Amino acid sequence: MKEEYGGYLPFEGHIEKDFFSVYGEENIIRTNSGKAAIYYALKMMDIHSIHVPYYFCGSVFKMIQNTGISIKRYYLDEHLCPVLDNIGEDEGIILVNYFGCMNKRIKEILGRYKNVIIDQTHSFFSAPVFREDIFNVYSCRKFFGVPDGGFLVGMNLKDIQLKQCKISDHFLYLVKSFEYGTNSSYQEKLQSDSFFMDNYCAMSDLTRTMLSSIDYQYTADKRKKNFEALHKKLSKYNLFKLEEPEDPLYLYPFLPSGNIKRALIDRKIYVPAIWRELICQDFYGTIEYEMSEKGVFLPVDQRYDIEDMEYIADIVIGLL
Description:
32% of the residues lie in helices and 13% in strands. Strand 4, helix 3 and strand 5 form a beta-alpha-beta unit. It comes from Candidatus Blautia stercoripullorum. This is DegT/DnrJ/EryC1/StrS aminotransferase family protein.
């Protein structure tokens, strides 16, 4: 029964199967963000401490502290793999698939660790790894124009009753950006981001409806072709040795010899500043410092085509 009848028609659509439904409902928890998915994964893990890379989102550190689990941080090598030996029985680790280009390396090192969270927030299309002590975490907003959304995927996940996320107050920036461009509502986007800092809920029905209608194959193909176009022109200038990825990337990670971020933004090529807190003397000389200070993360998403990638690449090469 409905609570009310008649009046105008609301947003239309139906909640149907999404990208991860194929893995079985008992193996999926739909959350309102990737960070919320990490939060609930930690709640399911029987550990006292967890190893987390320094090169990671600062807000997640605060969230982990709130669970009562202690944090041990680790450095990365030049390939963005952990510089870390085997860990204790009552410890866990977060392995990050940085930019979506780490699939092969993560699979190679998984056998060294127990109680693993694979952070796939940069790689929505990477298949989850199923093992009793592995949790796979995904983010929707990094890949699609939806107001919220994350997935926690693992073997026979505990049944957790989550409060439904109500997203209407954090959705209008998408409508505005659709009509006026993404830069028109950047501040509203930041306000929406702040909402997810401390609200760990179930995915909103609006997002579930939107995800049911996405052409995932189209999105994946677009991202792959755009990556290939950028990589063809920029690989010889890239100091970060990027291996050919298995799955569509979140962004194209480009490490130039100098800092060209501001010049790109001035030319309306908006590149995110990822984890700038590592730009300090303590990290000088590390890959974490280099990627935070100079790393340029170029868009390869489904809004663009090969001509756009060639334009961006030409601008980058000109600046170099």
